[in-house]
Recover the amino acids of this structure.
């Protein structure tokens, strides 16, 4: 087959991305849970039939999920291979153990095949039916291609002529899946069993028929089963739609043409990534940053990377990072690699979003660190750790190519859960993540009140949260002086104040970060403000002993909690920022007059206008 012309390749790529986008939209519009429906904490994609490698992702799903889903799909491929051949004991009794084979993705006949044991026994290997159109696997195992227990993955083969052409996958954050804390963000968890129920890959749908017993198990392990049921159906509908659209595309162009296009897009991504790396100077740059603590012990946790460039290859070595911790700030190796994928895509924006961009990257992630753990280490707070992984890659890259550096984003999702009981006896759980500022960059200031670079998710609207839960937001505002000062200022964080309205008040749980170590600036830019959490008690306001994490507290009806989130780090020397822009920041309330003089050396008249003479003197003196 001749290579595809550029126009046809571009058209096919657009069609594939549009299918993934439509799958995203289907789930967003049908999910019950606002973290999916409003915040878009979900993702869909197309993955390689044999390796599970990412082929296509949409433009609206969470990038961190896209990177992790390749490992999730591979976990299902391995499961199919293991299940495709099973050893049975001889007729005389005994027990056989499963034998895995490679490539068990096609449907196999159920006929016994002799498989003599070394002792000459009568053990037989039975080939079984493994895949049918419509089969769908479900799981949430964070150590086998997952992230944390709330993120449920559905993986389905796209069958063509009895063979797997590719895999489709859907992932979404379910609101509650058991565990000791409603919403499952338990900062005191010391093993995954305290975080919720862990489901290995199981066949939820067989030949198009939903297995109700699996649904019953899922429902029995949630405080809000009706919410999870709605999300599950939304994901299944998204896969149904994707399957129809992909069959139509394959019917229009032919299987060989689409396969060639997918291979060409992957090769192009690898070629572009290699060219980008080759343009950088050879050498090693390092960056270290810290997590506040693990939620159990108040000791900082180092996240460190040594980034090495050699010709057209890059090595990301995390060997100097902290060992596995007692609390839920651990992540699995697959999650660590996925976070590297997100960081690299922010840096090399011209590289297509598929597995090709990781081909020239080598990862050193020892399983002795908190970035490569296995079960049952707790992982509920994985978002905080992957954000620090992204930060240190940004920090190391700032030394490799300062002209392309970004200040650190606010880098905490502030996973806040409020939970209680309604008057009719029903449970309610409000889980939400919150915004902050992005870092200043070579071209402009960081965004105010944005989401983190792990996602394209949005912060759920206050109107939706207040309509669903017995709470009232008494403040939702930008936080002055929270962005790091710089020639290009860091974006502002926000202030959220929430009042409990239910008769019984609310239990409160928080996993946050950046309470001790602020988002850093680059190229002379200054650090942003620290994260801060406050809750009301009968004796006044209080703050958590572990600064950014808390559990085992309750607020009464009428009492409030308040989050004051960080901004982003600044870019460049603040004293070189145009004085008129500083004066504008003061007028808009982004920067106080005191900070304008202290950080930017800009003096204003009483009416807020720029005092050019005093500013020149102030800057000259510095």
């Amino acid at each position: 087959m001749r290579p595809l012309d550029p126009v046809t390749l571009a058209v096919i790529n657009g069609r594939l991305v549009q299918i993934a986008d439509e799958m995203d939209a289907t789930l967003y519009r049908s999910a019950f849970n606002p973290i999916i429906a409003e915040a878009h904490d979900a993702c869909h994609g197309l993955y390689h039939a044999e390796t599970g490698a990412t082929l296509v992702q949409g433009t609206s799903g969470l990038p961190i999920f896209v990177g992790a889903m390749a490992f999730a799909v591979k976990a299902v491929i391995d499961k199919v291979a293991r299940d495709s051949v099973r050893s049975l004991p001889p007729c005389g009794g005994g027990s056989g153990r499963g034998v895995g084979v490679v490539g068990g993705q096609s449907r196999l006949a159920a006929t016994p095949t002799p498989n003599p044991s070394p002792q000459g026994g009568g053990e037989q290997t039975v080939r079984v039916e493994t895949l049918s159109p419509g089969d769908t696997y479900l799981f949430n195992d964070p150590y086998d291609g997952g992230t944390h227990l709330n993120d449920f993955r559905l993986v389905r083969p796209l069958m063509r002529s009895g063979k797997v052409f590719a895999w489709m996958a859907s992932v979404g954050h379910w609101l509650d899946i058991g565990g000791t804390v409603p919403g499952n963000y338990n900062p005191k968890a010391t093993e995954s069993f305290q975080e919720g129920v862990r489901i290995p890959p199981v066949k939820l749908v067989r030949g198009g028929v939903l297995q109700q017993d699996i649904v019953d198990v899922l429902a029995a392990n949630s405080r809000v089963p009706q919410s999870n049921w709605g999300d599950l159906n939304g994901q299944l509908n998204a896969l149904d739609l994707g399957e129809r659209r992909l069959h139509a595309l394959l019917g229009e162009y032919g299987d060989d043409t689409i396969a060639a296009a997918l291979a060409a897009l992957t090769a192009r991504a690898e070629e572009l990534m290699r060219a980008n790396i080759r343009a950088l100077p050879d050498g090693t740059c390092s960056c270290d940053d810290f997590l506040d603590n693990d939620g159990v012990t108040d000791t900082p946790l180092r996240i460190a990377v040594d980034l090495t460039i050699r010709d057209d290859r890059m090595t990301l070595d995390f060997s100097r990072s902290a060992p596995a911790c007692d609390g839920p700030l651990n992540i699995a190796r697959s999650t660590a690699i996925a976070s590297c994928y997100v960081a690299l895509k922010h840096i090399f924006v011209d590289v297509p979003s598929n597995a090709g961009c990781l081909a020239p990257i080598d990862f050193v992630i020892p399983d002795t660190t908190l970035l490569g753990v296995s079960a049952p280490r707790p992982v509920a707070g994985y978002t905080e750790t992957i954000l620090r992984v992204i930060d240190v890659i940004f920090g190391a890259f700032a030394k490799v190519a300062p002209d392309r550096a970004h200040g650190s984003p606010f880098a905490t999702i502030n996973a806040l859960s409020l939970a209680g009981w309604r008057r009719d006896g029903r449970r309610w759980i409000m889980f939400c993540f919150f915004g902050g500022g992005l870092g200043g960059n070579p071209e402009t200031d960081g965004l105010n009140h944005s989401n983190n670079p792990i996602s394209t998710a949005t912060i759920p609207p206050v109107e939706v949260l207040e309509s669903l839960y017995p709470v009232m937001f008494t403040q939702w505002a930008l936080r002055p002086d929270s962005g790091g000062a710089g020639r290009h200022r860091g974006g502002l964080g926000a202030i959220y104040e929430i009042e409990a309205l239910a008769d019984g008040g609310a239990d409160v749980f928080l996993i946050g970060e950046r309470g001790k170590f602020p988002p850093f600036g680059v190229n002379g830019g200054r650090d942003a403000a620290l994260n801060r959490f406050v809750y009301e008690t009968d004796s006044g306001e209080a703050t958590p002993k572990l600064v950014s994490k808390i559990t085992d507290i309750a607020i009464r009806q009428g009492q409030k909690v308040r989050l004051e989130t960080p901004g982003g780090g600044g870019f460049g020397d603040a004293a070189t920022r145009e004085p008129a822009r500083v004066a504008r920041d003061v007028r808009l309330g982004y920067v106080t007059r005191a900070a304008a003089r202290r950080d930017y050396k800009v003096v204003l008249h009483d009416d807020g206008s720029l005092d050019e003479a005093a500013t020149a003197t102030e800057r000259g003196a510095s």
Remarks:
- The two ends are 68 Å apart (CA to CA).
